[in-house]
Amino acid sequence: MIALIDADALCFRMAVVVEDVHPFTGEVLGADMEEAFRLCQLRLKDVEDALFNEFGEDVDIELHFSDSTNFRYRVDPNYKSNRKGTSKPVIYKELVEKCKRHYDWIQYDDLEADDSMGMHQRHRLKDEWDEATCIVSPDKDMKQIAGYHLNLNRIDDGIELMTEQEGHRFFLTQCIAGDTCDGYKG
């Protein structure tokens, strides 16, 4: 079993958790890099345990990171326009680099981690589950992709299996409803 981890979300969340923020100004006073990495390790261990308990197989962790560029901005300049001006946590980049030194990772030019995980899940599906994968991400959009899913932020909710039909239905629903997080009105 291979856990395809949304490493952008993992690193972002753990970097935010360890920030020491001034209670009145909101200024970040510091952040504990070692604690952030320890929290990443603990969360990945929780993922391994959940998948092992469900499937009874050893679990390989595969971190997926986004590239600094993204083809979607060339398709639609308004993509994620509502996020402009927001910054990453102060130790985010350092935490990403530390995770890359300690875990297997994948990053493709001009693609987001979501794209990378989706390609790997679909590729393995076509090989008729020669090696099962599970997308581990808090991003609900990933449910468009058939296969196993685990919410990175709610591991106790368990593993969900999305069929091709369910994934397609979810995609069509998103097209109609839109996604304000990504700046798409639908």
How would you explain this protein's 3D organization?
- With 186 residues, the protein is of the alpha/beta class.
- 41% of the residues lie in helices and 17% in strands.
- The protein has 6 helices and 8 strands.
- The protein has helices at residues 7-17, 33-55, 72-75, 92-102, 113-126, 164-177, and strands spanning 2-6, 19-21, 28-31, 60-64, 105-106, 133-136, 147-150, 159-162.
- It has a 6-stranded mixed beta sheet with strand order 5-4-1-6-7-8, sandwiched between helices. Strands 2-3 form a two-stranded antiparallel ribbon.
- Helix 1 packs across helix 2, helix 1 (7-17) crosses helix 4 and helix 2 crosses helix 4 (92-102).
- The radius of gyration is 17 Å and the shape is globular.
- The N and C termini lie far apart (36 Å).
Structure described in brief:
This protein is of the alpha/beta class and 186 residues long. It has six helices and eight strands; from the N terminus they run E-H-E-E-H-E-H-H-E-H-E-E-E-H.
Major sheet: arrangement of strands: 5-4-1-6-7-8
Indicate the proportion of strand residues: 15-25%
Uncertain residue segments: none
Largest sheet: 6 strands, mixed
**What oligomerization state is this entry in?**
single chain
Give the CA-CA distance, first to last residue. Answer: 36 Å
Number of separate strands: 8
Helical segment count: 6
How would you spell out the order of helices and strands?
A: EHEEHEHHEHEEEH
* Mean pLDDT level: 86
Q: In angstroms, what is the radius of gyration? A: 17 Å
Helix content: 40-55%
Basic shape = globular
Report the structural category: alpha/beta
